[in-house]
Amino acid sequence: MASSTTNARDLEQIVRDGLSTLVFAFGFKTGIVDAFTEIQQPCTAKELSEKAGKKLRYTQEWLGCMVAAGIVTITDDEKYSLPHDKTQLKIWGHNAAAITILSEMIPKLEEATKLDGPKGYGYYEPVLHWIDVYRSSEALQDWNQRLLLPVMNLKQGNAFAILDIGCGFGKHSREVAKLYPCSKITAIDMDQFSIDNAKKELTKSGLKNIEYICLKGGQLPDEWANKFDFVIINDVLHDSYEVDEILEGIKRVLKPDGFAAAYDPAVSSYHKKVINDATAQYFLPFSLFQCLPVSSMGPNEGLGIGWGYERRKQKIKEHGFRVVQVGDKDIDAIQEGIVFQKM
Ligand SMILES: C[S@@+](CC[C@H](N)C(=O)[O-])C[C@H]1O[C@@H](n2cnc3c(N)ncnc32)[C@H](O)[C@@H]1O
After folding, report:
1. What is the pLDDT of residue 85?
2. How many helices (H) and strands (E) does the chain have?
3. Cα–Cα distance between 28 and 112 in angstroms, integer?
4. Pocket residues: Cβ below 6 A from ligand 1
């Protein structure tokens, strides 16, 4: 008899937490949370409403929601505190605000899920802006230390030709350019709006070692053959509808001793392995609303984050690459990065 695994949780509690998240997001988006961090705590509802520039009665109701949820604390004499670190409030407030953006996409998603509906849809601009803020300088620097430097250290020196495929607004490539001032970064994205944004920010940054080009990852030019020491492809493969073309392109443009590194959320391809998994709980909703619809726009079935680590690794191998272990993490363990070389 087939065995079944249950991860049933208290549905009512999940919904209550979701509602609290929405109210927290509202406070973050409208400046109540900011006002709270700037005011002397504990404070009265009136003091907070005046600081935030909001009506007292609405502020009281917001506070009620947050006290009930355990996010805000209250003293016996009815004064309120928000006992969380400012940086954490900023990070999780921004994350909570994603729910409001995803909610706006419900009509599009509803159409795409219909049997006779469209295959998917393109990027929703507010999502791209949301990602840009999510990629804070601090987060990117930490990411570079943990995930990029161990890969870059596989080659001697610091003057590399680096290709960033699917650079988005280009924040990450600018951090890499700062880290490797003697290297030349070519950063491409198929989305003109993203490249325009990246170019604008590049001018402001004064960096001279990046070039942004609007180009599809599946159409890398022939003259780039054997040109790059490193190819970085961050948060792109699972969004793409041309993974085969991108991987074939990487094979052409990577130097024989070069390394490619593809990063996607560390989620398994198998639902049995995502039970109670925090990474899957966090990322799969973004996939349902944005990554899967975007990657469904090509001739094949969409990928999305649910495509998962195991199938992603398999696809890379099928294109004739050798997957390289970096550090002591076994390549069979679910992880964000897959580093690979030409055979
Ligand atoms: C989730 S964003 C990631 C952006 C950036 N790499 C980062 O980590 O912040 C995915 C980006 O990949 C781009 N993209 C998706 N498929 C692509 C393709 N086939 N060729 C080029 N860019 C692609 C999208 O336009 C989008 O900007």
Report:
1. 94
2. 15, 9
3. 30
4. 131, 135, 165-168, 172, 188-191, 194, 216-218, 234-236, 239-240, 242, 246
In this structure, are 267 and 155 located in the same domain? Answer: yes
Query: What pLDDT is stored for residue 4 in this prediction?
Result: 60
Task: Tell me how far the alpha carbon of residue 129 lies from the centroid of ligand 1, in angstroms.
Answer: 13
Q: Do residues 81 and 132 both lie within one domain? A: no
**Which stretches in the chain have pLDDT values below 50?**
none
Domain limits for position 51 = 11-85
Q: Which atom of ligand 1 has the smallest separation from the CA of 171?
A: 9
Judged by DSSP in three states, 332 sits in coil
- Name residues whose C-beta falls within 8 Å of residue 292's C-beta, 6 or more positions apart in sequence: 120, 302, 303, 304, 305, 306
Distance CA 77, CA 57 (A): 18
CA dist., res. 67 & res. 194, Å (int): 40
Cα(50)–Cα(60) distance, rounded to whole angstroms? 12
Q: Give distance in angstroms: CA of 240 to centre of ligand 1.
A: 8
Q: Are residues 41 and 117 in the same domain?
A: no
pLDDT of residue 9: 86
The answer on 293 and 259 residing in a single domain is: yes
Looking at residue 6, its pLDDT comes to 63
Answer whether residue 97 is part of any domain.
no
Q: What pLDDT shows up at residue 226?
A: 97
